[in-house]
Amino acid sequence: MRTMIVAIAAVFLIGTAGCEFTNSEKKKTQAATAADIAAMRDDVGRLRVEVEALKREMKDSERIMRGHITSLQKNLNDVDAKAARRVNEAQTKLVNKINEIERKRVNDKNALNEKMDAIVGETRRALGTAPTSGTATRTVRGIEHTVKEGETVSAIAAMYRDRYGNKYNATTKAILEANNLSATSIIHPGDVLLIPLKE
After folding, report:
1. Which of 39, 51, 155, 199 has fewest C-beta within 10 Å?
2. Domain extents for the chain?
3. CB 160 within 8 Å of CB 195
């Protein structure tokens, strides 16, 4: 009887010990799982922080890129505007230079014509003949008049009519014919015109 009781007690003790071991293992497993979950939550939290940081960096980079693009576009526009101004300035300078050359050419031509007219006038005065614009010559009696600055044929004709009355055929047409000039002929200071006598 005592032996049976001892055996039952031993079995009971062994069974109790087995239950305690199983509960302890469960607690350890649960603790490890809880620790893993906590670690995973920490990782997820860190990942969220990193994702938010990356989003902010992307927004900042996008803003910076837009700023660079705007700056480059402005620089390009400035370069285009400067190039257009330089082209316009070069064209203006070229036009001004051409105009200056043309003015000089006209002035040189006029100066040469005046010198030639002066030489012709001096030659005719030396020969005692009036200036002519054509090749035909006429022998006309009259008085010589040396053209002064600002005088025209019509003004000279009027002056001689006022001064001498009917003594000279002092009409514009008569003076032009006497000097073989046309209505479009130009007279210059120093030219000698023949004012014809009344016939």
Report:
1. 199
2. 43-128, 129-196
3. yes
**Using CA atoms, how far apart are residues 37 and 41, in angstroms rounded to an integer?**
6
Mean local confidence (pLDDT), 123-137? 54
Residue 179 tokens read as 């000097």
pLDDT in tens, 77-99: 988 888 888 898 888 888 788 86
Helix (H, G, I), strand (E, B) or coil at 193: strand
Contact in structure between 160 and 170 (CB atoms under 8 Å):
yes
| Dihedral pair phi/psi, residue 162, rounded to 5° | -65, -35
129-196: which CATH architecture?
Roll (3.10)
Q: Which helix (H) or strand (E) holds 145?
A: strand 142-146
- Per-residue pLDDT band at 199 (split at 50, 70, 90): confident
